[in-house]
Amino acid sequence: MKIKIVVQLRGERIQGRKGEQMGKRVCPWWLGSLLASRVRRWIQGDPEQLLLPYLREGMTVLEPGPGMGFFTLPLARMVGPNGRVIAVEVQPRMLDGMRKRLAKAGLSERVDGCLAKSDAMGVADLAGTVDFTLAFAVVHELPSAERFFVEVAQASKPGASVLFVEPSGHVKASEFESELEAASQAHFAVSEGPRIQRSRTAVLRKT
Questions:
Q1: Residue 186 CB neighbours (<10 A)
Q2: Rounded Cα gap, residues 178 and 164, in angstroms
Q3: Sign of CA dihedral 17, 18, 24, 29
Q4: pTM over 0.85
Q5: What are the pLDDT digits (tens) for 54-106?
Q6: Is the CB of residue 27 less than 8 Å from the CB of residue 67?
Q7: Kindly report the CA angle at 32 between 30 and 38, in degrees rounded to 5?
Q8: CA 121, CA 41: separation in Å to the nearest integer?
Q9: Which residue, among 189, 127, 130, 128, has the nearest Cα to 164 in the 3D structure?
Q10: pLDDT, tens only, 163-182
Q11: Which of 30, 40, 42, 135 has the least CB density, counted as fewest CB within 10 Å?
Q12: How many domains in the chain?
């Protein structure tokens, strides 16, 4: 029953700051705790094992749509004290929940939590510094995949990688192909991604 409710609500249009429209399928903030819980780990597996092939200590990581930090905490642990995670979120309550979890884990100093506008991440200051981007179940929630991938490309170093994952229950194969085309237009080379339950995946590399 809970899964059915999630599916229906992810189709709602959520209001952002000052009444801004944040996209057609933005996950409501009050589901953030569930999406950061052990239940998700049980369903999708250990996030650190998923991220391990793409990360090294000292990396700079961009994480759009972190929610309440299911991946943010593992990312912060894996980049180490000399690394940096930039977590960009459009919902203030999601960001607050993530910050509380980071503080409890003693990882706050490794993560910059940024509140973004509804139509852009606003990461121009990162130009050419990002080693890895985790785009997990977020691109379909945005107004423009094209703009998203252009921003990620501008922030990324040459050769930087992106783990791109979309939920197959929300994103049709044709939609995913359109998103991959947007990534290609932003000068990312596309390759096959890891197998993740109920997901469509790809690994992108900036050329």
A1: 21
A2: 13
A3: positive
A4: no
A5: 999 999 999 999 999 999 999 999 999 999 999 999 999 999 999 999 999 99
A6: yes
A7: 130
A8: 27
A9: 189
A10: 999 999 999 999 999 999 99
A11: 42
A12: 1
Residue 140 CA to residue 64 CA, distance in Å, equals 12
Tokens at 203, concatenated: 């690994």
Task: Quickly tell me which residue has 């785009």 as its tokens.
Answer: 135
The upper half-sphere exposure of residue 66, i.e. CA atoms within 13 Å in the direction of its Cβ, equals 35
**CATH number of the domain residue 73 falls in:** 3.40.50.150
- Listed in order, strand segments (DSSP E) in 65-155 are 84-89, 111-115, 130-136
Measured CA to CA, the distance from residue 199 to residue 171 in angstroms comes to: 9
Q: Say which DSSP state 97 is in.
A: H
The residue range of the domain holding 70 is: 2-206
CA atoms within 13 A on the CB side of 83: 23
Give the chain's length.
207
| C-beta atoms surrounding 150 within 10 Å | 17
